[in-house]
Design a protein that fits this description.
Elements lengths: L1 H11 L2 H19 L4 H9 L8 H26 L8 H12 L3 H35 L3 H15 L7 H15 L2 E2 L6 E2 L12 H18 L13 H4 L3 H22 L6 H15 L11 H17 L1 H6 L6 H12 L8 H4 L1 H31 L5 H20 L2 H19 L5 H23 L6 H4 L1 H26 L7
Helix pairs in contact: 1-17, 2-4, 2-17, 3-4, 3-15, 4-5, 4-6, 4-13, 4-15, 4-17, 5-6, 5-13, 6-11, 6-13, 6-17, 7-20, 7-22, 8-20, 9-18, 9-19, 11-12, 11-13, 12-13, 18-19
Length: 498
């Protein structure tokens, strides 16, 4: 494998291919900064360019756009509370409070370094464990996916900074929103108020509304919107020694979680980042700090989404199974170049297979070198008064949402979700569990239905399959821990002050 990886490095370090790798990651980062555009839009627009490039060069460029957007998505999330990509929604929870406290430079530095480490770990796992992880992924059937989603939904109740009951209610709201549209099995419309909603509610609309528009409404309603410190030095960018030590384990855990979820078809970076944040909150000795600008809560999801972006290529390249819509586009680009992805790809096209994998290593280094010098430039955006930024941000949101599905209805829904998010925050309901319920709800429904159809409605199938039974046990442990913490909190004596 080392010899093959060195072969890939010899391919990607050719000047022309290296130039296209740089172009890909730069465009990806730029697209990630622009709220709502996303990697799928950029890759769709650049797909015709692949007709004029060889398969290896085009794949390296398109892959660079994909994982480069994961880097860029954190920038708008930290500075403006606008998730540039779905996987950077969780970054808003800790990154934006840090920016409000005048630590935007530190937040951007930690996000860049966490993304780099997560990406490198993902590449290492991709090189060393592609075949074993593919075998594990192949053993995941409908029962395993259903129980994995239930575990994720239970963990989502730990994301909120308020009560777990409120968080669970928000998860249920997210599931309900995910049911809107045509039923995938029967084709019947569900909760469709107008024909334009037949395709369901857009994830981009929901994320932009709940996080971006709601924050604009909150700030606009104040006489003097809070602004972060405008002066920044390089000392402000780097974490202290104690802060750096506190980030090691969260980055390691986030990279592991992201690598695992990235290798599973149908999950992707967004789910990996949510799961990493939830698990980090569970492992933390100071969970009360989450949601207020806690660095470990920023580092874990950032490392997870970049690790998932790398290992997401495992089922794509080795099985020809796209993990998400972006991977489906990349498979389409391969087919347009006359190459069929699958188990024979590494044998028949070793330069392409290992060249793409080696480009992840080179691309992550390029992204880190681009990001750190530009931190002070990004923070300069905060010098612009908020009142002058509002119209620009609203226009960016509307353009991004409209370009996703070219639907005016999506723009209207984004504004409506902005009002909903504003009311939720006023009444101390967290929006993050809504997002996870929205993402995982349809996945749970599809796999639970498929399980019941395949096994004749036998619920014991979840306990008789080893991986599914293990996930059931993990879910049970999570419930017991939540109940125990609730009972312990009720038993604590309340000290009254005179």
């Amino acid at each position: 494998m080392i010899d093959q990886f060195l072969l890939g490095l010899s391919v990607v370090l050719q000047p022309e291919i290296l130039m296209y790798a740089f172009i890909g990651v730069f465009i990806g980062q730029l697209i990630g900064v622009l709220p709502g555009i996303g990697a799928i839009t950029a890759i769709s627009l650049l797909l015709p360019v692949t007709f004029y490039l060889d398969a290896t060069t085009s794949m390296i460029m398109l892959a660079g756009i994909y994982y480069g957007s994961q880097y860029g998505g954190s920038i708008a999330s930290i500075l403006l509370n606008l998730p540039g990509t779905p996987s950077s929604v969780v970054t808003c929870l800790e990154g934006y409070p840090l920016a409000q406290r005048g630590r935007a430079g530190l937040a951007l530095f930690v996000a860049a370094c966490s993304s780099f480490v997560g990406g490198i770990v993902g590449v290492a796992i991709l090189v060393l464990a592609a075949i074993p992880m593919t075998i594990i992924a192949l053993r995941f059937g409908a029962p395993e996916y259903a129980m994995l989603v239930i575990l994720g939904l239970l963990a989502a109740s730990l994301i909120g900074t308020g009560s777990q009951i409120r968080s669970f209610a928000m998860v249920l709201l997210g599931i309900a929103l995910g049911l809107v549209g045509a039923d995938a099995t029967t084709g019947y419309y569900r909760f469709v108020a107008m024909p334009e909603m037949a395709d369901g509610i857009s994830l981009v609309s929901l994320a932009m509304g709940l996080f971006g528009v709601s924050e604009i409404i909150r700030n606009a309603s104040r006489r003097s919107p809070p602004g972060p410190a405008l002066s920044i030095t390089m000392r402000d960018v780097f974490p202290t020694r104690a802060e750096a030590r506190s980030l090691v384990l969260p980055i390691v855990r986030g990279s592991g979680i992201g690598s695992f979820f990235g290798a599973l078809p149908g999950t992707g970076a967004a789910i990996a980042s949510f799961m990493a944040y939830a698990m980090e909150r569970r492992f933390s000795r100071t969970p009360e700090k989450f949601g207020k600008g806690h660095l470990p809560g920023l580092a874990a999801p950032e490392s997870a989404n970049n690790a998932a972006a790398q290992t997401g290529f495992i089922p794509t390249l080795t099985l020809g199974i796209p993990g998400d819509a972006v991977m489906a586009l990349i498979i389409g680009a391969l087919i347009l170049n006359g190459i069929i992805p699958g188990p024979r790809l590494a044998v028949d096209q070793p330069e392409l297979f290992w060249g793409v994998i080696a480009s992840f290593f080179v691309g992550n280094i390029i992204l880190l070198l681009i990001n750190i010098p530009l931190i002070k430039l990004w923070v300069l955006l905060l010098r612009v008064p908020y009142q002058k930024l509002y119209p620009v941000i609203i226009v960016m949101i509307c353009v991004g949402v409209y370009s996703h599905r070219t639907s005016i209805t999506d723009v209207v829904l984004t504004l409506a979700f902005g009002v909903l998010g504003y009311l939720m925050k006023n009444y101390r309901f967290e929006p993050a569990p809504v997002m996870l319920g929205f993402v995982l709800g349809p996945l749970l429904e599809d796999n639970f239905r498929r399980t019941m159809l395949l096994y004749g409605g036998d619920f014991t199938i979840f306990l008789t399959r080893p991986i599914s039974a293990m996930l059931v046990a993990c879910s049970a442990v999570l419930i017991v821990l939540a109940l125990w913490s609730g009972i312990s909190a009720m038993r604590k004596p309340v000290h009254s002050t005179p």
